[in-house]
Amino acid sequence: MLEESLTIGTDEDSQVTAIISHVVRPGREQGYEEWFHGIAADARKFKGHLGVSTIRPQDHSHPEYVVILKFDRYDNLKTWLESDVRHEWIERLQPLIEQPESIQTLTGLETWFSLPNQPLKSPPPRYKMAIVTWMGVFVTLTVVSRLLAPILSNLPILLNQLLTTGLVVALLTYVIMPRLTQLFQRWLYPNF
User: Fold this and answer.
1) Residue 1: helix, strand or coil by DSSP?
2) Looking at the structure, do residues 100 and 16 belong to the same domain, yes or no?
3) Cα maximum dimension of the chain
4) Residue predicted with more confidence, 123 or 71
5) What does the pLDDT read at residue 120?
6) What whole-number distance in Å separates Cα of residue 24 and Cα of residue 33?
7) Which residues cross the membrane (predicted)?
8) Is residue 34 in some structural domain?
9) For residue 1, what pLDDT is reported?
10) Highest-confidence range of 38-47, 50-59, 125-134, by mean pLDDT?
11) Torsion sign over Cα 123, 128, 129, 130
């Protein structure tokens, strides 16, 4: 799984986030919590580590933990993920989980360019992400500004812009970009 997920180019100098999910065996949650605290402490010792947190399951019938791991750059994340220290921790993890861990790496705009039910192998080229994002922002901002102008015209300009951009970002994140990614899938991911 690691080889499939870590294909972002090594020339990335921007912050990178790894999203790691573990489905914990019923009754092994306490052991997993102890394991998580141990591996998190060791991860902090690695160059470029910016933080780690976990999202605990809300539904105990499907105990999936999501670990959010941040590093300052891709190379430092890769060093940690491929380290002997981490491999030892992953060996200790095996009796606690039901299936192999899942890892996705994200560095920025590609979070808007993930395909539904598909692992993120590598993001599209930045120029393609920029073009599709520009199209999405242009269309969304134009429509939202026109629709909200009569309602927000009496508000102070900063409040007007705050409300307009907030709505635009929400629409882009949850409605527009997922649809544009599907629409331009063949262009964004020609080898997919």
Assistant:
1) coil
2) yes
3) 62
4) 71
5) 45
6) 10
7) 131-152, 158-177
8) yes
9) 38
10) 38-47
11) positive
What does the block give as tokens for 167? 């709505």
pLDDT at 118: 54
- Six-digit token string for 112: 């808007």
In a domain, 117, yes or no: no
* Helix runs in the chain, H state only: 2-5, 29-44, 74-81, 84-93, 126-152, 157-171, 177-183, 185-188
The dihedrals phi and psi of 40, each to the nearest 5 degrees, come to -60, -40
State residue 19's pLDDT score.
84
Q: Are 172 and 112 in contact (CB under 8 A)?
A: yes
Q: Structure pTM?
A: 0.54
Quickly tell me which residue has 């192999």 as its tokens: 100
Q: Is 167 domain-assigned?
A: yes
pLDDT at 177 over 60: yes
Are 9 and 91 part of one and the same domain?
A: yes
- Is there a contact between 32 and 67 (Cβ–Cβ < 8 Å)? no
Q: Which domain covers residue 70, as residue numbers?
A: 2-107
Which of 81, 77, 60 lies closest to 17 in space, CA to CA? 77
39 to 6, 44, 83, 93, 127: CA distances (angstroms)? 20, 9, 12, 10, 37
Which residues have a Cβ under 8 Å from the Cβ of 1 and sit 6 or more positions away?
100, 101, 102, 103
What is the crossing angle of helices 84-93 and 29-44, to 10°?
180
